[in-house]
Amino acid sequence: MSLYFLCFILFCVGLYAVLRKRNIIKIIIGIGIIEYAVNLFIILLGYRLQGRAPILSGDQEVLNMVDPLPQAMVLTTIVVGLAVVVILTGLAIRIYEKYGTFDITKIRRLRG
Amino acid sequence: MELHLILIFMIIAAIVAVVMKDLISSLIALSAAGLGLSLAFLILKAPNLAITQLVVEILVIIILIRATIRRDLPRVIDGRWVFNTSATLLFIACFLVFGYLALKELPDFGEPAMRASAGYILSGFEKTGAGNIVNAITSSFRSYDALGEAAVLFAAIIGLLAITRKAGRVRHEK
Amino acid sequence: MKNETGMTLIVKTVTRLTTGLIMIYGIYIILHGHVSPGGGFAGGVIIALSLIHLVLAFGKDVLGRKFTIERGVFLMSLGALVYLVYSAAGFMGKRQIPEGAAGSGIFNTGLIPLGDISLGLLTGIGLFVIFMLLVSLADREEK
Question: Considering only CA atoms, which of A78, A43, A35, C29 is closest in space to residue B43?
Answer without folding.
Answer: A43
